Amino acid sequence: MNMAISKVRGAFFKMNVLATRAAFRAACATFVNQIEDIEKDGNDFQTRVDADEAQWSEVDEDTGIGFDYGDELAERRFEAEEALSTLRKAFAILAYHQWERGALSWAKYEKKRPNHGDYVSALTTSGIQVDINGLADLNRIVNCLKHNNGKSGAELHSARPDLFDPSFDPSALHPVTGKPLSHIKWEENLKLTDENVEEFFRTILNSAPR
Questions:
Q1: In this predicted model, what pLDDT tens digit does every residue of 98-131 receive, in sequence order?
Q2: For 64-193, where are the alpha helices, taking DSSP H only?
Q3: What's this model's pTM, rounded to 2 decimal places?
Q4: DSSP SS3 for 173
Q5: What is the mean pLDDT of the chain?
Q6: Is 152 part of any domain?
Q7: Number of domains making up the chain
Q8: Distance CA 82, CA 88 (A)
């Protein structure tokens, strides 16, 4: 590819990635603010409880129906955290596909449908530096999220156990049969943070024409 054209495409790619990153931050901020509000509500309510002005649990004397304010706060927080988790996973997929689309235009390919290895090989041959390990992690994450791919899941857990729930052990045995688990839900056990997603954006920015 002509060097001037390469730099222009790289500049447009960077602009689009930064816009996507800004969208991610803005989307997450909504739910982060919700969680902060929930924590404030809980602290304020605890102050009222300490002053004997309120109780965490109450029962309606007429209906016998109980209400627990702590349960309500916990449910609100759970929903906000689940929304954050979904956002992080969605933007991880988006980041990879953004790089993938760019890679198709930065090099020539013999295959009509090149795979991840083809992208990395072609870009490297074309003189474009890429973050090989970072892209491999991101590719495996996408395979886990979209396809629940066991091979990618096992490789990712081996390379990046920090991306999973600390209690998750893919080599654990079934508690009843004592045999290895036959079906592992890799997507459910991935626990991405905001910093993880920021890392993914840095990875694709460092794997494009500059």
A1: 999 999 999 999 999 999 999 999 999 999 999 9
A2: 69-106, 116-125, 132-147, 150-159, 186-189
A3: 0.90
A4: strand
A5: 93
A6: yes
A7: 1
A8: 10
Kindly list the distances between the CA atom of residue 124 and the CA atoms of 69, 166, 201, in Å, as whole numbers in the listed order.
57, 35, 19
At 192 the pLDDT is 98
**Contacts from 34-42 at CB under 8 Å and sequence distance 24+?**
34/76, 34/80, 35/77, 35/80, 35/81, 38/73, 38/76, 38/77, 38/80, 41/73, 42/70, 42/73
In this predicted structure, what is the pLDDT of residue 10? Answer: 87
Q: What is the DSSP letter of 136?
A: H
**Are the CB atoms for 143 and 136 separated by under 8 Å?**
no
For residue 9, tell me if it sits in a domain. Answer: yes
Q: What was the pLDDT predicted at 168?
A: 93
Name the residue range of residue 154's domain.
Answer: 3-27+86-205
Phi, psi (deg, nearest 5) at residue 111? -80, 145
Provide the pLDDT for residue 116: 97
Dist. CA 202–CA 199, nearest whole Å = 5
Inter-residue contact 200 to 95 (CB < 8 Å): yes
Domain assignment present for 32: no
Residues of the chain with pLDDT under 70: 1-5
Decide if 102 contacts 128 (C-beta within 8 A): no
Please state, as a whole number, how many other Cβ atoms lie within 10 Å of the Cβ of residue 197: 22
The pLDDT assigned to 102 comes to 96
Q: Is 42 part of any domain? A: no
Contact between 91 and 20 (Cβ < 8 Å): yes
